[in-house]
Fold:
Amino acid sequence: MARPPEVFVREITMAEGQRLQRIGRTAKDPVKLRRSIVVLMSAQGQPAADIAHLMRVSADYVRGVIHAFNERGFDALDPKWAGGPPKKISDVVRAKIVTIAWCDPRFLKLPFSTWSLSKLRDHLIATGLVADVSRETLRHILHEGGVSWQATKTWKSSNDPDFQAKLRRILDLYDRPPTDGRVLCVDEFGPLNLQPRAGKVWRPVERARRLPATYTRTQGVRHMLAALDLASGKMFYWIKNRKRAREFLGLLKALRARWPGEKLYLICDNLSTHKHATVKAWCAANQVELVFLPTYASWLNWIECEFAALRYFALNGTDHQSHAEQDAAIGAYIRWRNHRAKPKTNFAPGSRIREPGYTIKAA
Structure:
């Protein structure tokens, strides 16, 4: 069999050569990049068979690219995507599939509360909406329709009739702290029981860290009472066996002693110990103003995100054997954190709660 005659690209100018080199350096489309390299190598005198061998493509592909470039120039380097075969499932049917996926299956008289791709596929075929469809096709249809597989979360709406006023008051304290005092966020963290706590850690592949399971816990629980100073960003805490009004008042007295000449604005939730008569009387006599959150709106308390970090970095993945050991771990983390603390500013920027007409009272 005779060897086919060699095919070379037409003579190219210096400007065209520079353009081909630039495409070879910057092209993001792999097809355009490959075609430009073929043309450039052919212009350098490489035979089609050698180019095909070096680029691991067929010689017919190389000749086709060269012929196309000779006929159409640089336009031949751009791929002309045909868009693939026509869709077997129309856009109308796809929209119906997305709508069904949104529905609770029980509304359709089915005996389950959530869809799987297999159950959704069986339902679509049984109702005649489609003759047949694969689970992977369903996955693509739902993705293109803006539907994703998500975990269910709970939320609690606030029933506080003064929600708006309390929200604006707290945001104002965060944004514009009073010049005559200091704003502190106070809350309780716990209960602090002794148990192995699940967590995440870097480990060798297939060598997960294991913690023992415990069923008998005889050392009781403790509670942490804490305050976050917005001016410095530092946290102050007590760990006590109980969290009664007596313990809460003890924390307030310690805060009062730390800043004796300033009025304290304490943002706290509606726990009964915070509203105890002895607590209110002491606050009124000692320049301490209790600023209560709206009901079911603990997310407004800035200290909550600090508690989340404390749980993640100091407790998750641990198995403390005594309260003293656990208390020491908490104390070490808070000291490390306070050493790097910065003033707390710019609470929830861009959030809907910043909108003047915000009425969705949900946490």
